[in-house]
Design a protein that fits this description.
Elements lengths: L5 E13 L4 H4 E4 L2 E4 L3 E13 L3 E5 L6 H8 L7 E6 L2 E2 L5 H8 L2 E4 L13 H12 L5 H14 L16 H13 L5 E5 L7 H18 L2 E5 L3 H7 L2 E6 L2 E7 H6 L4 H8 L39 H5 L5 E2 L5 E2 L2 H4 L4
Parallel strand pairs: 5-10, 5-11, 8-9, 9-10
Antiparallel strand pairs: 1-4, 1-6, 2-3, 6-7, 11-12, 12-14, 13-14
Helix pairs in contact: 4-5, 5-6, 6-7
Length: 338
């Protein structure tokens, strides 16, 4: 994989969110002495991630694992505590809002909740015109309207509905409008944060196929965040598995589903019901998910892993590339025990 084929690169990214709002909340008495205790949620912990041009990289993991936080850091919506984000070879996490503006047209985001992501006071026409006018101030009114009609038509929304408001549409139609808004400025890269999880199952496949068609027609690059492994198998070209703010495994979709390597990935995939299995083999994880406030030492998964040994309890595993191209962070895999 050549250097020029990497569109987005996250280098050793960390993100912490302080729990206490101010100094007074951090102070407490301990053994008769006034102490200050600073606590934070360690949402992202040393993530190294590369997104290749033209791919659909699915990021999966259970709720609270840091998927959406990582997406927002990549998009520049929140700043990382440490680490770097590079877009097409240029670092962007340290840019101010003015300098970041030229990347906004290239990078767009589709949010999870179509009921909250659209302004209820703006018509669909105004919602779609706004980003086009902002990024293309030289365009005439006719050119803007033509672009809006074209992008509405491309997502299956009648351009005649432009004067309607979001509350007049169903959830699936609203999400199509959200997708149209992202596509209106002809981006290169789209982050889709669980874009179908709030929709009825009957509508999910339509929206998913719409995103897939847009990728093929426009040569888009996606980060697709989801917890639905069936969606991953249908949509993704590669998969990144996260657990408690760390990356466990990155692999081509077919490789991951046919031969998962990390114990957590194996447990996730074992939970998928298969019609051809008479006796499904579910891997039951022991213990509870640790809190992101007090992370376990060593491998964050060692408390729930049946393959963990003393090294796993004290040494953080590093992502290592295997012969089949899979990248995995696991001492058991590295030592040949798994």
């Amino acid at each position: 994989m050549s250097k020029h084929s990497i569109l987005v690169r996250a280098k050793n990214v960390y993100k912490e969110f302080p729990i206490h709002a101010g100094l007074l909340e951090e102070l407490h008495f301990e053994n008769g002495r006034l102490m200050r205790k600073r606590e934070s949620v360690k949402a992202i912990n040393g993530v190294q991630l590369e997104v290749r041009k033209g791919e659909a990289l699915c990021v999966v993991g259970e709720s609270g694992c840091g998927k959406s936080t990582m997406a927002r850091i990549i998009m520049g919506l929140i700043k990382p505590t440490a680490g770097e984000i590079h877009y097409d070879g240029e670092r962007i996490d340290n840019l101010d809002s003015t300098k970041l503006l030229r990347f906004r047209r290239k990078m767009q985001m589709i949010f999870q909740n179509p009921y909250a992501s659209l302004n209820p006071r703006m018509t669909v026409q105004d919602t779609l015109e706004e980003p086009i006018r902002f990024h293309n101030p030289e365009n005439s009114k006719a050119e803007v309207q033509e672009k809006v009609s074209a992008v509405m038509d491309s997502v299956g929304v009648d351009p005649m509905w432009g004067e309607r408001y979001p509350h007049e549409f169903s959830g699936g139609q609203r999400q199509r409008i959200s997708i149209a808004r992202a596509l209106a400025v002809d981006p290169e890269f789209i982050v889709a944060d669980e874009p179908i999880s709030a929709l009825d199952v009957s509508i999910q496949a339509q929206v998913l196929n719409l995103l897939k068609d847009a990728r093929d027609e426009r040569a888009l690059t996606y980060i697709f965040i989801t917890h639905d492994l069936a969606v991953v198998e249908h949509f993704g070209t590669r998969v990144a598995v996260m657990y408690l703010g760390t990356l466990c495994e990155i692999a081509e979709t077919r490789t991951l589903f046919s031969s998962p390597r990390h114990p957590y990935t194996q447990a996730l995939l074992s939970a998928i019901p298969r019609l051809n299995q008479e006796r499904p083999h579910h891997i039951e994880l022991k213990g509870e998910v640790p809190t992101a406030i007090n992370l376990p030492s060593g491998c964050v998964f060692h408390g729930r892993c049946i393959h963990a040994n003393e090294r796993c309890q004290h040494e953080v595993p590093k992502l290592r590339e295997l012969r089949d191209g899979t990248t995995v962070a696991c001492h058991a895999v590295e030592e040949g025990r798994l």
